[in-house]
Amino acid sequence: MEHFQTVQNRSAQTVAVIKTFAPTLSVGGVDVAALTAQSAALEVLAQQRDRALQEYDRAANAEQLGLLGLQTMVVALPKAAEAELDDEVSAESALQDLLTPVYAIKARSTEAVLARGRKLTIALSTIDGYLTTQAPPRAAVACAGKGQAELSAALDAQVALEQALHDRSARINQSRAALREAAASLDRLNKRFYARLKAEARSDAALARALVQIDTGAPNLPGTLSVKSVLQGGGDNLHLLVAYEPGSIDAKADSTVEWQVDGVDTADFAHAVPADPSGNSIGPFAAGQTIKLRTRVRNTNGASTSAVRTLQIA
After folding, report:
1. How high is the pLDDT of residue 220?
2. What is the pLDDT of residue 219?
3. CATH 3.20.20.70: does it fit domain 227-312?
4. CB atoms within 10 A of CB 73
5. How far apart (Å, rounded) are the C-alpha atoms in residues 50 and 101?
6. What count of other Cβ atoms lies within 10 Å of the Cβ of residue 161?
């Protein structure tokens, strides 16, 4: 159960007691109807948060897929260009030198892949211009049917994918903050109502007995293990690669990642493995399957779960 759901449950229990024993009770101008409405509003905010998470995961996977394709091109195309050029021909040897700045950039990060791609585009423009004007004309540099045009298109697309991912990340932060703030506000209101009910219970024995129906919450519940990203990958590209927010795993608690396959598993989150601080690879799954996953953290006082993340295997 997520924290906001715990707060909602306490609110529902509080409303039930109020309606039975003190239906006109209010705190700070807030009556039982307004308390109920605030609790219901959390569900709307949670749905908005969940949609933001789904959009982020789709954007992250699109960005990752685009990056892998681009990385393949910026590694393969320089080699294809070198193979096409004859270093015994002075003009072609000079063209090979255009690839030196390309090879100087190691394609090990998004920024490096983009930088290498831009330099490669410039080099290929000159190399292709030379090749296609020979007599007879020679084919422009290509590998697996992709050349300068496809490289340029992929570079433009990747910039757009990076921006989309940035925008989705901002939406997650906004939706999480809205839910967190609303849950904190409702939690404070629950506690104020409880304090007022305890005061009323001094002269109402039935109400005093009913207060045990309100779960005030176990102390020191474990914090939530936050998932940073869920990406499709692995050697077969049929696994889910789960990464966690740095420092979010509590070594003193039992942390797991659990999942279910829609339409296959009859029980909710029937599968689980210990959460690894370096990340988890779960699967393999079949193409087209939709996977739901979340984390669970347990200690001696209880458990907390993260928001559900959903991803369809492409």
Report:
1. 77
2. 65
3. no
4. 24
5. 44
6. 21
| Average pLDDT of the residues in 249-254 | 90
CA distance 62 to 241: 14
Burial of 62 (0-12, 13-18, 19+ CB in 10 A): middle
Angle between the N-to-C axes of helices 90-97 and 32-84, in degrees from 0 to 180, rounded to the nearest 10: 160
CA atoms within 13 A of residue 270's CA, in its CB half-sphere = 9
Is residue 203 classed as helix, strand or coil in its secondary structure? coil
CA distances from residue 251 to 247, 254, 276, 277, 293 in whole angstroms, order as listed: 10, 8, 11, 10, 21
Quote the crossing angle between the two packed helices 32-84 and 110-132, to the nearest 10°: 40
Residue indicated by tokens 């029937």: 270
Per the CB < 8 A criterion, the answer to whether 312 and 306 are in contact is no
Cα–Cα dist 21/13, whole Å: 12
H/E element, 180: helix 148-201
**In what order do the strands lie in the sheet containing 280-282?**
227-233, 239-244, 280-282
Question: What does the pLDDT read at residue 221?
Answer: 82
| Domain-wise residue ranges, the chain | 1-217, 227-312
Question: Does residue 139 contact residue 130 with C-beta atoms inside 8 Å?
Answer: no
Note the pLDDT tens digit of each residue in 212-225.
Answer: 999 987 667 888 99
Digit-coded pLDDT (tens) for 11-32: 999 999 999 999 999 999 999 9
